[in-house]
Amino acid sequence: MTDPISDMLTQIRNGLSAKKGELSLRHSILKENLARVLEHEGWIKKVEVTGEGIEKSLRLELSYTPTGIPSITGIKRVSKPGQRIYARVTEIPRMRLGVGATIISTSRGIMTDKQARREKIGGEVICQIW
User: Are 34 and 43 in contact (CB under 8 A)?
Assistant: First the structure.
């Protein structure tokens, strides 16, 4: 697999379109940190790490509104292995009318665009979610 983050985002997108309640993914620290940011922002209901060692997996409980509409309507990978996209704090892309978030990988960890602007730090633009 050349791009595990893109694979994770695709599995989330496919799980939401199929109305799945939860997903199970292969574990990596980067995926776990990304999922924790999505959970903190309310895009995903719950994140759990199960198993030990090489058998670790990441279990995501997807979030829906009471009427059954997914909380995530769109998710897009920005920086790819063949073309990394970096942004200074002043160049971090803003989302549509403030609805959504841009996820940034910084020297202080993975965070949303709002947190990065507050801490005045730039980094690699991982994805956008709305």
Answer: no
- Residue 95 per-residue DSSP state: P
pLDDT in tens, the chain (130 residues): 689 999 999 999 999 999 999 999 999 999 999 999 999 999 999 999 999 988 999 999 999 999 999 999 999 999 999 999 999 999 999 877 778 999 999 999 999 999 999 999 999 999 999 9
Beta bridge partners of 95: none
Tell me, what CATH number does 32's domain have? 3.30.1370.30
Using alpha carbons, select from 96, 24, 98, 30 the residue that is nearest to residue 62.
24
Q: Which of 62, 90, 105 is the last residue of a domain?
A: 62
